[in-house]
Amino acid sequence: VSAAKLQAPRGTHDVLGPQAAARERVESVARALLEGAGYERIETPTFEATELFARGVGASTDIVRKEMYTFTDGGGRSLTLRPEGTAPVCRAYVEHGMHKLRQPVKLWYASSFFRYERAQAGRQRQFWQVGAEALGSEEPAVDAESIVLLAALLAELDVQDVRLRLSSLGGPEARAEYRERLQTHLRAHAEQLAPEVRERIELNPLRAFDSEHPGTRAAMATAPSLLEHLSPADAAHFAEVRALLEDAGVAYELDPTLVRGLDYYTRTVFELTSDALGAQSGVGGGGRYDGLVAELGGPPTPGMGWAAGIERILLAGRAPVAAPPALDLYVAWQVQDDVEPAPRPAARAAFKLVYQARQAGLTAQMEQAGRSLKSQLGQAERLGARYVAILDGVSAGGAVLRDMQARTQQELPAETVVHAVLRGRGAL
Ligand code: HAM
User: Fold this and answer.
1) SS3 category, 309
2) Rounded to the nearest 10 degrees, what angle do helices 140-156 and 232-247 cross at?
3) Hey, which bits of 316-386 come out as E strands?
4) Could you give the CA distance from residue 97 to residue 222 in angstroms, rounded to a whole number?
5) Which residues contact 286 (CB under 8 A, 6 or more apart)?
6) 308 lines ligand 1 (CB under 6 A)
């Protein structure tokens, strides 16, 4: 059997060394920021009932129509790898009766999501998001706080050239009315539109704003604006969100053409883009979803949140990654001759010493590649080890401890090495 070349599936990638450290940093900065603002960690399942996304994200969206990884399990259930996190968080809110807790309930996550999209730089089929959701309050302060937190996260992670686009979609009635007005406008300009926009006039007219097609763009330039048709309550809500952002010194661009690719949004919507990213410029985005919890069978509950792509944060950022912890002790060892019978005393002594060192709170590594003593010392140097203990197996129970900084060494009993290193590190 000839083994075909096995590779990670298209649109996925392995996370290696420095990349793993960079991600960890995104997560730890997000944790400090969000938990400091009252958000608690939530982790929902990687797959959910397909119906959750069909109902939550919306049947007319690209995500539900063509991007979901859906499968039938052994019990005949239709399940879907989560394409996003808001519907699952709302499902969990309802399932665990979180409306009985003090409101708002604030939850954050850092998880992977799945969308069958055309893979390119910054767009994968499995990607990671940091997200934050606040449920149970319609206070404009929740909207503004949520946006400010994402802006602060991106700033702390040194994401370059960030711009905030902001709009309001109003409530469901205003949106439905607007949809009809927009459809009328699009039908009147039908011959000018890109075919795929024309086909979606009935299904999803708002997506016309996303088109790059010149004729469509020309038609959209004269399209009615949703912001001009907000109800007085929605307009007042939006005015307060804007005032709070201004008070916080957060600059934004009002963009009435901002439509997000998910159906659950009401009122505030926003997106943070980075000009450092090129085509896939959206680093993070979100908004209010005051109807979603009820749509999923829960009590009427407003919600507000966002998610930001971790890969895109890293592409557009340049935050330094913390170095791995310093190495206190490297244990070099050598057997007397190649045919020494197992268990080899030097191997056992080295293993035991590393174990004891770690128990004492030191960082320690031992030789595991059969190098010569000389290249073991070279390896210890490369790892930045502060001390090297050399066990040669000849002088039973004895060791040589080398101080790599002072370039001095001493002979001592193996069982006192940990003590000597602790003393040398100033820990005793
Ligand atoms: P979204 O705009 O679909 O919103 O995704 C949020 C972010 O996830 C994007 O800005 C982008 O950085 C990243 N992202 C999305 N798709 C991909 C992909 N294929 N490859 C790499 N990164 C990607 C949501 O998912 C909403 N759940 C946000 C939200 C939370 N709204 C309210 N609460």
Assistant:
1) strand
2) 40
3) 329-333, 364-366
4) 46
5) 86, 131, 146, 150, 260, 269, 270, 304, 305, 306, 307
6) yes
Coil, strand or helix at 347: helix
Split at pLDDT 50, 70, 90, the class of 405 is very high
Give, to the nearest 10 degrees, the angle between helix 17-36 and helix 140-156. Answer: 150
Distance from C-alpha of 288 to C-alpha of 290, rounded to nearest angstrom? 6
Integer Cα distance of 181 and 167 in angstroms:
18
> Three-state SS for 331?
strand
Cα of 342 from ligand 1 centre, angstroms: 56
Query: Average pLDDT, stretch 153-159?
Result: 96
- Spatial contact of 138 and 302, defined as CB atoms under 8 Å apart: yes
CA atoms of 141 and 272, how far apart (whole Å): 19
Q: Do the Cβ atoms of 401 and 387 come closer than 8 Å?
A: yes
Residue 162 sits at the vertex; the CA angle it makes with 160 and 165, to the nearest 5 degrees, is: 170
What DSSP assignment string belongs to 84-107? -SHHHHHHHHHHTTGGGSSSSEEE
Interatomic CA distance for residues 44 and 110, integer angstroms = 10
- For 370, residues 6+ apart whose C-beta sits below 8 A from its C-beta are none
Contact 25, 321 (CB under 8 A): yes
Two tokens, residue 291: 């109807």
Does 393 have pLDDT greater than 70?
no
Angle at 10 between CA 81 and CA 316, to 5 degrees: 85
117 lines ligand 1 (CB under 6 A): yes
Residue ID of nearest Cα to ligand 1 atom 21: 123
pLDDT in tens, 364-390: 999 999 999 999 999 999 999 999 999
The ligand 1 atom nearest the CA atom of 305: 33
pLDDT of the residue at 1:
55
